[in-house]
């Protein structure tokens, strides 16, 4: 049994309780640089040991590699299936986008095989702004409801960058069709626009997961990847905030993660992890927040530095490396 150190938070009306820190498995697909299978398996084991029970992947990450590696790592835990919650996605692939009923129905079988699972807890339409939202409403989601009835998936989600996609879809489907939304890059120190949507999502009974608390690498000492789509102005402001924290002997990534974790209405903050060291840093940030609260002084200094670019976003999409 995992050593329970992380807060568990209910996810909408699903009955699931997610660890406040979730394991983002895109780095296992080498999306953010090389990672050995051994390190990946060790990272998953360490995260689970500290109470992380939520693991998120997609067939798009590393062209199916992330799912395969996560599947091996979860199997290696040797624990009962009800001890962890797995979400994967459909509709976005190395080859491109396909949200057709036929493709997503085939997609779950492929994912289950790679993950070595009989079902996934959450199955999400991946980056729906790149498809037709009306197709998502009229074709994709009804296909996922059939997969739910077949027992291959337990809950249904939608993901993407522009927040308007969530209201568009949720306003057009029967209540209870969509169980969860996954938003990214809209609940961090530089962009907290997801907050405005939380009351609406709550009223719809939809659970909320937020990813990329570090703004896809901008709020890290290493900086974002070459392909990061943010404007030069936003990148420069984040770099200034990083440097400010460094001079003060503070870690901006820890501060950014704690900022995201501090809102209990977000069920889980997904953080990409690929090593024991990264897992331990993320767990320590959560434990420190629980014990001592936020470093308000540094947070307000960083907030001031980022004020000129606050809530500035970018065109959608994560590039395929």
UniProtKB/TrEMBL annotation:
Pfam families hit by this protein: Aldo_ket_red
Gene3D superfamilies: NADP-dependent oxidoreductase domain (3.20.20.100)
High-level lineage: Eukaryota, Viridiplantae, Streptophyta, Embryophyta, Tracheophyta
Organism: Solanum melongena
GO MF annotation, one: L-galactose dehydrogenase activity
Entry's Gene Ontology BP terms: L-ascorbic acid biosynthetic process
One cellular component (GO) term of this entry: cytosol
Domain of life: Eukaryota
Domain NADP-dependent oxidoreductase: from-to ranges: 21-287
Annotated protein name in UniProt: L-galactose dehydrogenase
